[in-house]
Amino acid sequence: MMMPINKDTVGSSRFRSAANNVAVLAVCTAIILVQQIVLAGLPNIELVSLLVIVYAQTFRFKSLNIIYVFALMQGILYGFHIWWFSYLYVWTILALISIALRKVRSPLIWAVISGMYGLCFGALCAIPYIFIGGPAMAIAYWVSGIPFDFIHCVSNFILCLLLWKPLTKLTFKMFS
Amino acid sequence: MDNIPFQVIFYAVCSFEQAAFLLLASGFNAPLPAAGKFIFKGIGDQKSRYQSRPPEDRRRKDGFAMKKTSKNNTRNIIISIAALIVLAALFFTAYQLLRPRGAEGNKKIHFTVLVNNETIKSYDFRTDAEYLRQALEEENLIEGDEGTYGLWVTTVAGRKADSGKEEWWALYKNDKLSMTGVDDTPLEDNDSIEYRLTVGYDDAD
Fold this sequence. Notes:
The complex is a heterodimer.
Chain A: H1 7-10, H2 13-38, H3 48-59, H4 63-78, H5 82-87, H6 90-100, H7 107-125, H8 127-175
Helix pairs in contact in A: 2-3, 2-4, 3-4, 3-6, 3-8, 7-8
Chain B: H1 3-25, H2 55-61, H3 63-98, E1 107-115, E2 118-127, H4 132-138, E3 142-147, E4 150-156, E5 159-160, E6 167-173, E7 176-177, E8 191-199
Parallel strand pairs in B: 1-8
Antiparallel strand pairs in B: 1-2, 3-4, 4-5, 6-7, 6-8
Helix pairs in contact in B: 1-3, 2-3
């Protein structure tokens, strides 16, 4: 239930906590969006996967707010094309995996998870094409992108191996 | 993308897995020093800091528990890396089996260029090329910019797409929008290739 904004509630810790949550999630969304725009020129090299993992571990299900605002902003920036529909579930899948495996503390295991996710990214994004052109179109889309999924896998693996640990420590320190 | 760079990518993946084993052996995989029981009541809430001392601290007092955890961690890492290698091998095999391949030998191709729904060029030619790019470049029909995803076609039959007006060339093969770029589109005898000048990035169908 939404908290009423009045003189009794504004000063309360519950209100401060809610306002804090909104501010923190907004900053995290801005970080994920800006890095995506900055790295857009590099094919299949992105920090979105890593940030989704870190956010999901830190904020649990609240990280879905970041993911869906990010997806909405992607649609507004680049247009609501077929690929956009895949953004409604691909990052959610990664977030749910990250929440389920949040007790894992090995950078190497997270690098492997991120690498596997990069490898499967094209297959996950091919799902909307089943409804547009049938399974043949979806398979053609997936197969034509496999070489780029390998690039995605390697880049995710390296970035996660190097940055998961410092980013996790930083977010826990800042937001926990 | 032809076979050689793709195999390089595949071998690179395997090399990174090997590097990962070396990192593991060098103790890179030490647990986070502050890792503990993460329970958050609210983001930024001071009360939500670690609710208990990190379990790793307690484990260090118990040599057996520490040893067992470390052993399990190593086992999990090996299993996860093996799973990644198996997945990569499956994808590599799927690509080799399912990727589109052009027919060998001489082929007849019907080529059409449409601008504003009017045909500005339509003719047949023969080629031995297995993929579209080579066939069209032999006939001097396309020009473009090299990109990471192959050739981005900007000019077809002398007509240049004006990116300032959001013009681009949509490639159709046998009346269907191609899922592959000009580099990866395979050719078969009697294929119909059509380039349509499309305005706006929402209009391809």
